[in-house]
Amino acid sequence: MGQEIRQKEKKTLAELAAVIRSKNAGPFEITFDILFDNACYYRRVKESGVLTREHICQLYSARAEDVVCLEYFDQALGIKVTLRRHHPSGSAGERDTYGAQQHVPLLTIEIPDFFEQGT
Amino acid sequence: MKEIRILSPQGMLGYGYPSSSFEEGLQASPDVIAVDAGSTDGGPHRLGLGMGGVSRYATKKDLQPLILAAKERNIPLIIGSAGGSGAGKRVDWLLDIVKEIAKEQGLRLKVAAIYADIDKQWLYQRWQEGKVDPVDSAPPLSAESIKETTALVAQMGVEPYLEALKEKPDIIIGGRTYDPVMSAALPILNGMDPGLAFHLGKILECGALAATPGTAKDGMLGILRDGHFLVQPLNPERKCTAQSVAAHTMYEKSHPYYLHGPGGMLDLSECRFEQVDERTVKVSGSRFIPSESYTVKVEGVKQDGFRTVLICGIRDPYLLQQLDEVLAQVQDEVRSYFDQTSFQLFFKVYGRDGVMGAWEPEREALGHEVGLVAEVVAGTQEMADSICAYTRSLLMHFDYKGRVSTAGNLALPFAPPEFSAGPVFSFSVYHAVTIDDPLSLFPVKYVELRGE
């Protein structure tokens, strides 16, 4: 029974955030902004501890040193993750010059509800 | 000065803006019109080929009302990163458009053109002196990469604009420029806080992107005062919220609140965003921390060859099941046929991992059809064309295991099927260089236009 309730209360990052986007930060990095318009949802994600460097590495098959930033900006209700690119933007073999479509794996990250934590 | 009002009509010159928004902005009696005209985001070819991301037609169409309004009100029009890359030939390209407008409209204009081109030998010398460091995740510079570089610009700070503003030009056309500078220059000239000025500039340079709904094809008004600034969109259908402005502060930067620029860092860790009315946000607490030595970012590109592209579709389920093996075999056969030639051949499988490549977590998911792009980069256009055509004919008739469709493996949407795409560039320099004088690299040329 308890298990069933927990399942229902998990929400994905896409359900909680107002904006999840990726974009160039110069030619050598792609940056991800996860932005909230609800302070409660922001805190829920921040305090869940789900979004870690290890988690990002796993999602993007990235090495630890490729995650150059994972920071919370409380005033903006925003989380920033920055990844090193495999090759500079727009060069031979490019797939996403602006880096604008690399955010998708973040959408389905599951975030537990507050009261579930610590149980 | 008590306050300075900055009108940012759009996020990029040539993107377009509603004239009603611009009129609204002019009603607010701005002290300056500031607009960004370039970026590295579109790719290295802009600097490499000396081309822009917007057309001459769109640039002229957007520019004319800005020039007329600025001239009529006797306020400066400041344009940064001219023509996309901010290279000298792109400054001249924009200057030529201004000349044309001056002539057609019968305007007398004093234009300051600021150049940002960098000499290769100069960079090499600084590199040897140990005054060059990678920016963000750029690899270290080498003598080889400097040698291969074909075009170089430095991103100027506010100082060359302050010099130019003292001469009271009607228009400043800046070469490659740190994005917030166009808005920050007049306030800083008037002794206002650089932290607030640069932060406001960072928000205004994207036009109405920091509003909600956001877009770079519309404008904003910024009002800088003692201790804070206000931002408000020009279009009544948009609004700025504390959240939308705070969120935009993070936009396209590696770190959410430490933003490095020429001569120092913007520290936004303590800044506050407050809703003043339904559409206006007040920002305070932004700080500029000058660095010990003055650095500018230098951007350079090198040519890696010429590109030819093939676009095709694959629908046959037997081929789709073994696509990776087939592509690997084709790759091998092409390499062995063009034995002595150095080239790169990339396959992008749209419908599987075309967008994300090695970052794609769902590699196994495959639709009932895929779009296949073959990209060849070789030393000459002719060789790239040859290799791409060979790849196409090999793929078209490749005899994979269990093949039943013996008439051909590819759906070709275009005839001819390959496209010669011209020179291919990559960013070879993206480095901070320590300089003694923030003005020395950026010569200013003054031009008097007498339109008749």
UniProtKB/TrEMBL annotation, chain A:
The protein, known as: DUF4387 domain-containing protein
Organism per entry: Caldalkalibacillus uzonensis
Pfam (any one): DUF4387
Entry superkingdom: Bacteria
Domain DUF4387: 13-110
UniProtKB/TrEMBL annotation, chain B:
A Pfam family recorded for this sequence: AtuA
Top-level taxon: Bacteria
Domain Acyclic terpene utilisation N-terminal, first and last residues per copy: 61-396
Entry protein name: Acyclic terpene utilisation N-terminal domain-containing protein
Lineage: Bacteria, Bacillati, Bacillota, Bacilli, Bacillales
